[in-house]
């Protein structure tokens, strides 16, 4: 295992970049702690696969350095970094059996036959392929082949890091849950440094100790799932995390007072702002319907089984609110209230903390008055 350090790292595919927009990866300075599990989360084209390929050595960055435990590995090839990488689509040896595929990286390192057999049996059971260990890979389905790729990454215990680039794309939904569970167990048992690239927030939030959210070539927040959900550092994080995502309102803010769509209300705490564009973000789970607050109109209700998603119009903006399955939803006009402690203030799309500080996250969601 290794601590991975990115120093002033940036990358462009152009020979002569003229502006920040010419960089696929904006400048990064981050530490990935030894033994932690990270998820790189973001939409297609945000730079997450570029970053993973730089860490693995498949791509040399145009700027900055990559260090493993303080050693500069920026120009080292993948083979010299002692990492295991699993790609989006399966990479297996079709002429070999499943057992031979899993054993290949171990035999290359000269491990004793008994240890190879033990590890292969253990990983074969972990990925649910014990019954087909002696079948040739050529005759297997795409998701079975990807399980072999995952197993080949997990069979070694001497790697500096395990890197996964959207590895569950071709796996059926039921097996995705099982493999994520097995990956988490592997991490608990062996403490590998793991970096898992995905565009699926469920995969990221259920797999990782910390999630690294990327947007437009830069890291906009690194945090725990609770931090990303309750205190998104950027409006994009609020929008991207959650289903539905965070409601973001254009707002005028003066100290502890705010105005949305012509209605003023009290934020309960003050904010120090610098004259930029201000917005307020509120999770659908932190919106209540009632007879006072901001006037709104119910447009439709979506019953998703465990709760209802209420779509409202507030001053011309569509707003989502989450209500209990048994809640009575008014038709037509109503009002929305924000749960105390469930409001985030943004200036130029970046979160501004309350001027007088904020309580621990677990104490930050009281019921609305």
Can you summarize the main beta sheet? 6 strands, mixed
Q: What's the number of domains?
A: 2
Fraction of residues in H or I helices: 10-25%
Terminal-residue CA separation: 50 Å
Overall CATH class of the largest domain: Alpha Beta
Radius of gyration (CA) equals 24 Å
CATH homologous superfamily title of the largest domain: P-loop containing nucleotide triphosphate hydrolases
Shape: globular
Write the element-wise H/E pattern from the N-terminal end onward: EEEHEEEHHHEHEHEEHHEEEEEEEEEEEE
Low-pLDDT residue spans: 363-369
Strand order of the largest sheet: 6-7-8-3-9-10
Strand content: 25-35%
- Strand segment tally: 22
Number of helices: 8
CATH topology of the largest domain: Rossmann fold
Return the structural class.
alpha+beta
**Mean of all residue-level pLDDT scores:** 89
Itemize the secondary structure elements and their pairings.
Elements: E1 4-11, E2 25-32, E3 37-41, H1 48-56, E4 63-68, E5 71-72, E6 83-86, H2 98-108, H3 113-126, H4 142-154, E7 161-165, H5 173-190, E8 194-198, H6 201-207, E9 210-215, E10 218-223, H7 225-230, H8 235-240, E11 247-250, E12 252-254, E13 257-260, E14 263-266, E15 278-282, E16 287-290, E17 294-303, E18 307-314, E19 317-324, E20 333-338, E21 343-347, E22 350-352
Parallel strand pairs: 3-8, 3-9, 6-7, 7-8
Antiparallel strand pairs: 1-2, 1-4, 4-5, 9-10, 11-15, 12-13, 13-14, 15-21, 16-20, 17-18, 17-20, 18-19, 21-22
Helix pairs in contact: 2-3, 2-4, 3-4
